[in-house]
């Protein structure tokens, strides 16, 4: 696999991870090992994307840069936006999904009504072609399967998400579309191209994505200040 480079900086790389590829694997075929082989030097992944999720992946080029990214993520100073596609219309056109998450059967996660250590996601929805919906999601926290569970709770599980009841697709329709952060006083706004897929190639989806970019400039539903203070203390 040839690495797809989105952006390069002396301290980090931004790569385009394809769907269906694991970040790590015991046989040395994981994404991190492959990119390190291509780069010819050690790389430190500073966040993760699930095997079936595509999009922007940041990797530090030194331990010091990785530590700085760790602080940025901990302080929630890295903004991430994801695209998803669903065959169902969510209960609301936009909103904030918040609740504690707990493990269920077979590795599934469940969203609870309590807010002790909540997962928090903002979202917008629009017509997505073929009678479906296009979803723009901003996670404020980073729980396992957070976005997939949030959309299931909204009645709009993602296409290709067999675990959470999504409609059939060749792969999970979840894409890490954009990332923004400040590095050494300079803002970086990164975009991963849409996956090569008939679902994303739809003219309605393409048009809506043009209207939504850059998502950092959109007015999305914002969690209540009390909720932001709660997750800020975690």
Automatic annotation (TrEMBL):
Domain of life: Bacteria
Pseudouridine synthase RsuA/RluA-like domain sequence ranges: 12-152
Transmembrane segments: none
Gene3D superfamilies, alphabetized: Pseudouridine synthase
Signal peptide (UniProt feature, chain positions): none
Family: Belongs to the pseudouridine synthase RluA family.
UniProt name for this protein: Pseudouridine synthase
